[in-house]
């Protein structure tokens, strides 16, 4: 079997463009992969056009390791977000083809069930707090999440906070967290996101204020480039630290593990080179007693691929899910889209990734000039209209 070509399809919303890649073969099998880019979609499409000619066409889709190696190193440049995201789309599509050809789900090819003995994978909701930034509105929105069956949810309550957070904004942010905890009760998991906003001193101060709400993690408390700053925060709080969504090469996690500053890593399957690369990273994390909770802000193909990893990874914690709340209508572009029921996904038994792209439905959502600015007023509404204050 050989790859004859790829086709790309961009599904657009005001705040995110989702890129789907179909890999076609001479035996009629087609696989699908996906990533979500912020502001770089055209660059990704351009890279894939060149990679198709230089590396992809003529390759054996079963020889995934060789294809990834050539795409990553064969252009004699250091692979960053765009290249690793392009690799990820093609790589997961090859796993999809392999699973279909052999008649088994991808998780079976990766070692079989390890962390989903009851066939379920816990989900947490994101994208649900697109409301006015008041305790009353956040309470109502959070209540709707748990009424839908979710047993975990995440929020960034910090507005446009950047390095510091003044006293008034601190009180406002804490009031939002308090309202959410009241809405979901003591048993549901509360996950707190900082989006790399703060200096170590501010992050440490806020962590102390928020500890009484028993969050399961504190995510990206400081910008991701400085591991010593992250270690400073980790040393001064009892809350678990989560980070990693903006690291695009598994090798770059080495120093993070060595720092002992992280408890949960959050690599994005669509940015870190695909399923095989993530599987290697998860195994390395296990040797450091670190859990894996993938960043998952894409659509249903990326969710399905992340679930394949969940099924075979002993140190897998939980999977993020946006598409019940943000742009829920885009789920129709994928046949067999994974659904959350009573707070859990069900691990698919279907061959490959267990999903198919509906290209006609995808065409209903053309690419947009998507924009997402975390330092703009009302960014949390995710409508593409947030403006810098």
UniProtKB/TrEMBL annotation:
Residues 135-240 form the Mandelate racemase/muconate lactonizing enzyme C-terminal domain. It holds the Pfam family MR_MLE_N. Signal peptide: none annotated. CDD domains: MR_like. Keywords: Lyase. Gene3D superfamilies: Enolase-like C-terminal domain, Enolase-like, N-terminal domain. InterPro entries: DgoD-like, Enolase-like_C_sf, Enolase-like_N, Enolase_C-like, Mandelate_racemase_C, Mandelate_racemase_N_dom. This is Mandelate racemase/muconate lactonizing enzyme family protein. It comes from Streptomyces millisiae. The lineage of its organism: Bacteria, Bacillati, Actinomycetota, Actinomycetes, Kitasatosporales.
